[in-house]
Amino acid sequence: MSLPLDNLVKISKGGLKAEPPSQSEIDGLLRSATRKLLDARIPSLGLESAFDLAYNAAHALALAALRWHGYRAENRYLVFQALPHTVGFAATQWRVLDFCHNKRNLAEYEGSFNVDQKLVNDLLAVTQELEILVVALGPVSSQNKASQSPK
After folding, report:
1. CATH code for the domain defined by 19-147
2. DSSP states of 67-104 as a string?
3. pLDDT per residue over 22-66, tens digit each?
4. C-alpha–C-alpha distance, residues 143 and 146, integer Å
């Protein structure tokens, strides 16, 4: 199966590369995301910590979906942009992650943390939806590996 992402690989956009999927890598990303998502829902957790955990869970899930399809990105942001192609995410869903990515960068690189409970709740909801879709991809089959080999 050829995804529109193949065109980005050809022009090296965002450091996207074709790479055969690794079931053990995908499983590790799913385990990590599941733990982070559970922890992000701990009621006594601070807002900043909940946001950080939920954001990192979303990133791990988006990366797992990208890897399942046989791609790897050097650009952290590209894993969210690819979600319409990897799991069928609507623009409204991945834009929540885009917004959170920008908030995360401001916090990480400029020390400006400005999120509220509504944003954290929206992030948790979108990440839960993403988790369901990534799990539904199922295991990487040998047929999937063959069809996603770099050309």
Report:
1. 1.20.120.330
2. HHTTEEESSTTHHHHTHHHHT---HHHHHHHHHHHHHH
3. 999 999 999 999 999 999 999 999 999 999 999 999 999 999 999
4. 5
